[in-house]
Specification:
By secondary structure, this protein is α/β, with parallel strands linked by helices. Helix content is about 35%, strand content about 10%. The strands form two sheets. Strands 1, 2, 3, 4, 5, 6, 7 and 10 form an eight-stranded mixed beta sheet that branches. It comes from Orchesella dallaii.
Length: about 425
């Protein structure tokens, strides 16, 4: 894997990404970390529950009681509102899942004319998200809009299981529980190649840029290490908050991950929940209320709702866009498959990046071995860039460092001992 490259002349893309990350992900306070060679949760981050209240209250005083203009808008409505021309594609994967993808073909703010096909950027969301989550910010801070303004063609994905991509050639996502028998593994080996091939076919280009966030980065690593020819189709990959090795995860979400890591508990949860945790939109339909509606008063938005996000994902009051919070909470989370959580939980406990563990007997049928095989990330050769946040609870910096060390160790074999020590002293 190449960690630095200027071969493809994508300085404007890098500039847009850096600006986006500076606004959204660059956090300033030092995170408490467990040593990299120990697989255990980091100590909890400091949390100031009341410190930013006055700042937050000041920033939202003029919008109290007003519904955010984009709060209940779907991706096509948001794109139309801001005059970004787009096309909609329904892409069927090899295993029958039908994905909805939006292609932004131009920009109202760009007069740049292309003499040939535009360079395409495949933008892939994280867990509990959808194409909507790239449009949370105002136009000046919205990554897809900034890329379109810079002359790129932007393809917004909706992974299988999201409310935009519930179709299947033979299964009903509402009544057939087997529809939900997938994790980010299937997204990596089926969804990413299918969308990539469609982009290449439609744009008549040879390679694309890939931007992934969180679970979108997990899919990237799986796709490029498992699917033949994928590395040749990627001009460069940009990993925002990469999630691969999760031993140092210190969010309260870890408890849920670990609980579902055991295959019998995963099966029980799947039956109880029909395979998924429903989206915020479903609750809005059923209860006529969403997180965006609840977090509309100063007392809840400032000091309650914002701190809930800090607790789950990492604290930094200066990075919280309080005026956009109702719009964010009205759309997040989207559907979350139980198996996605279970798979992440297994990797959290094992300190590995490996395929799903069904237990020895079923593993023999699925993989030909009693244990699930690890993904070989050394097979990734496409130039790849990493962006991480110092205060990220789900993908803390030392998890990112583990990934880099494993990449740089190249063909050196790493054994994980009973204490989850990833790096024997002789290996570093």
């Amino acid at each position: 894997m190449k960690l630095n490259s200027r071969k493809f002349g994508f300085s404007s893309l890098l500039l847009s990404l850096l600006h986006y990350l500076a606004l959204l992900l660059t956090l300033t306070r030092a995170q408490l970390q467990t040593p990299d060679n120990v697989c255990a949760a980091n100590p909890p981050n400091p949390l100031k529950l009341s410190g930013p209240f006055s700042t937050c209250a000041t920033s939202i005083k003029n919008i109290l009681g007003q519904r955010h203009p984009d709060q209940n808008k779907k991706t096509p409505e948001v794109l139309a509102t801001y005059n970004y021309p787009f096309q909609t594609y329904n892409i069927t994967t090899k295993d029958g899942y039908i994905l909805t993808v939006y292609r932004i073909t131009g920009s109202p703010n760009s007069k740049k004319k292309s003499n040939g096909p535009k360079q395409a950027v495949y933008v892939n969301h994280g867990m509990g998200a959808s194409s909507e989550n790239w449009n949370f910010q105002p136009g000046s801070r919205n990554l897809p809009f900034k890329l379109a303004d810079a002359g790129y063609e932007v393809w917004l994905s909706n992974c299988r299981g999201s409310t935009y991509s519930l179709g299947h050639t033979s299964k009903n996502s509402n009544t057939d529980i087997t529809y939900w028998d997938f994790s980010f593994h299937e997204m990596g080996i089926y969804d990413v190649p299918a969308v990539t091939d469609k982009i290449l076919s439609e744009t008549k280009t040879k390679r694309i840029f890939y931007v992934g966030h969180s679970m979108g980065t997990t899919q990237y690593f799986i796709s490029l290490s498992e699917v033949a020819g994928m590395n040749d189709k990627i001009a460069a990959g940009f990993m925002l908050a990469p999630v691969v090795y999760m031993g140092h995860l210190n969010s309260p979400l870890r408890l849920g991950f670990e609980l579902l890591a055991q295959y019998p508990l995963y099966q029980a949860a799947t039956l109880a929940l029909m395979g998924k945790i429903q989206s915020a939109g479903q609750y809005r339909k059923q209860l006529k209320l969403s997180g965006g509606d609840i977090c509309d008063l100063t007392a809840t938005k400032c000091g309650v709702c914002d701190n809930l996000i800090f607790l789950l994902f990492g604290y930094d009051a200066s990075q919280m866009n309080n005026t956009e919070l109702p719009n964010i909470l009205a759309k997040f989370p989207n559907n979350i498959g139980v198996k996605w959580l279970s798979h992440y939980g297994q990797n959290t406990l094992s300190c590995e990046f490996k395929k799903y563990d069904y237990g020895p007997a079923l593993n023999m049928k699925a993989y030909g071995s009693s244990k699930p095989p690890a993904y070989d990330i050394q097979k990734i050769t496409a130039p790849t860039y990493f962006f991480y946040a110092d205060q990220d609870n789900l993908g803390p910096p030392n998890v990112f460092i583990i990934l880099l060390k494993l990449i740089m160790l190249l063909r050196l074999t790493i054994d994980i001992d009973a204490n989850c020590s990833l790096f024997p002293p002789s290996a570093i």
